[in-house]
C-alpha cells in the first residue's frame, strides 16, 4: 500500500511541476510579446528604389540600402528637427526654388540647402561656412559674392542661391551626374575627382569617403522621401502651423547708411526685423564707396506679413505637407 502511495505522490509532483513550468513558460512568452513602454519604435520600410534630380537609384545593394535606411530612420525619429525643417521650408523654398529653376538646376537641390543649414539664414559652421548654402568665404568670392566686414552676401538667400547654382552647374559640367555633384558640394570637387580616379569608380556614391561625405547624398534622399509624404512618416501639420512666407517691399539704397537702427525705424520696422531679413548686413552701418557696389537692395517686410492672425489663410508651398 505504501508503495502505491509513493508512486501516486511522485506522479502528482511530476504533473504539478510540469504544469508549473509550462504555465511559467507560456507567461514568459506572453510577457515577451507585450510592450513595457508607452510608445513603440518601428523601423521604417525601405523602398526598392528612389529618385533624385531625375536620376534613379536602386536600393538593392547592401551598402546603398543600409546608408539610406540609416538616414531615413534618423530623420523620421528626429521629430523636432524634421518638424522644424518642414515649417521653415514653407518660407524658404518659395524663395530658392524659382532661382534653381531659372538656372536649370533640378528642384531637388532645395534639399541640399536643407541639410546644409537646417534652412537657418543665420547658420555659420566652425569652418566659417555661412548662410543657408553654407558657402566658404573663398567659394562665395569665386562665384561673385561680396564677402566683407560690413556686407557678407553668403547670408543673402537670393544671392547665395545664385552662387550655389553656379557651383552646381560647374560640377555637373565636370561629372555629368547629379549624385556626384551633390557629394562634391560636401567633399569638394578636387577630392571627388581625385578619389574617382584613385578608386577607379564612375560615381560619387561608390566612393570610400569620410563618414560625413558618405552620408551626405543619402541624407538628401531621405529628407526628400519625408517631405513628399510627411504623414506617412508620422508628421502631422496643418497649414497654420507652417511658417508663413514673408512679403517684402524692396528698397534700393544708393548712399551710405550711418545707422541701420535709425534707417529701420524710418521704414516702420525694428532693427531686429531689418537684420532678420537682411542678415547679410554684418555691421550697424552700410557704407557705399567706390570699392563696394553702387547700390544694395534691402528687403523691408510688410506690416501685414509680420503677424499671425487667427483664421489667416497661410499659403502652403507643397500641399503634401499638410493633413486635412
UniProtKB/TrEMBL annotation:
One Pfam family hit: SLT
Domain Transglycosylase SLT span(s) in chain numbering: 101-203
Segments passing through the bilayer: none
Residues in the signal sequence: 1-24
Gene3D superfamilies noted in UniProt: 1.10.530.10
Superkingdom: Bacteria
InterPro entries assigned to the protein according to its UniProt record, in alphabetical order: Lysozyme-like_dom_sf (IPR023346), Transglycosylase_SLT_dom_1 (IPR008258)
Keyword Lyase applies: no
KW Signal (keyword) present: yes
Keywords: Signal
PANTHER family: MEMBRANE-BOUND LYTIC MUREIN TRANSGLYCOSYLASE C, SOLUBLE LYTIC MUREIN TRANSGLYCOSYLASE-RELATED
Similarity comment: Belongs to the transglycosylase Slt family.
Name this polypeptide is given: Transglycosylase SLT domain-containing protein
Amino acid at each position: 500500500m505504501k508503495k502505491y502511495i509513493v508512486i501516486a505522490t511522485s506522479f502528482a509532483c511530476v504533473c504539478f511541476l510540469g504544469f508549473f513550468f509550462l504555465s511559467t513558460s507560456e507567461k514568459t512568452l506572453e510577457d515577451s510579446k507585450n510592450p513595457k513602454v508607452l510608445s513603440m519604435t518601428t523601423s521604417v520600410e525601405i523602398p526598392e528604389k528612389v529618385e533624385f534630380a531625375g536620376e534613379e537609384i536602386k536600393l538593392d545593394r547592401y551598402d546603398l540600402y543600409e546608408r539610406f535606411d540609416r538616414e531615413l530612420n534618423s530623420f523620421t525619429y528626429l521629430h523636432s528637427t524634421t518638424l522644424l525643417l518642414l515649417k521653415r521650408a514653407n518660407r524658404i523654398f518659395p524663395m530658392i526654388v524659382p532661382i534653381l529653376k531659372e538656372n536649370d538646376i533640378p528642384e531637388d537641390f532645395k534639399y541640399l540647402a536643407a541639410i546644409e543649414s537646417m534652412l537657418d539664414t543665420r547658420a555659420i559652421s566652425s569652418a566659417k561656412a555661412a548662410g543657408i548654402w553654407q558657402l566658404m568665404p573663398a567659394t562665395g568670392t569665386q562665384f561673385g559674392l561680396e564677402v566683407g566686414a560690413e556686407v557678407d552676401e553668403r547670408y543673402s538667400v537670393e544671392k547665395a542661391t545664385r552662387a550655389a547654382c553656379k557651383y552646381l552647374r560647374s560640377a555637373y559640367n565636370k561629372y555629368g551626374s547629379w549624385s556626384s555633384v551633390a557629394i562634391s558640394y560636401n567633399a569638394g570637387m578636387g577630392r571627388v575627382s581625385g578619389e574617382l580616379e584613385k578608386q577607379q569608380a564612375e560615381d560619387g556614391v561608390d566612393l570610400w569617403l569620410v563618414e560625413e561625405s558618405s552620408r551626405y547624398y543619402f541624407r538628401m534622399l531621405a529628407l526628400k522621401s519625408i517631405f513628399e509624404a510627411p504623414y506617412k512618416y508620422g508628421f502631422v501639420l496643418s497649414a497654420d502651423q507652417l511658417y508663413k512666407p514673408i512679403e517684402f517691399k524692396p528698397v534700393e539704397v544708393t548712399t551710405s547708411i550711418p545707422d541701420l537702427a535709425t534707417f529701420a525705424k524710418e521704414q516702420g520696422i525694428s532693427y531686429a526685423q531689418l537684420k532678420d531679413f537682411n542678415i547679410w548686413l554684418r555691421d550697424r552701418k552700410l557704407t557705399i564707396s567706390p570699392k563696394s557696389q553702387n547700390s544694395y537692395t534691402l528687403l523691408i517686410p510688410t506690416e501685414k506679413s509680420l503677424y499671425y492672425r487667427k483664421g489667416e489663410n497661410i499659403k502652403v508651398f507643397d500641399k503634401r505637407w499638410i493633413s486635412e
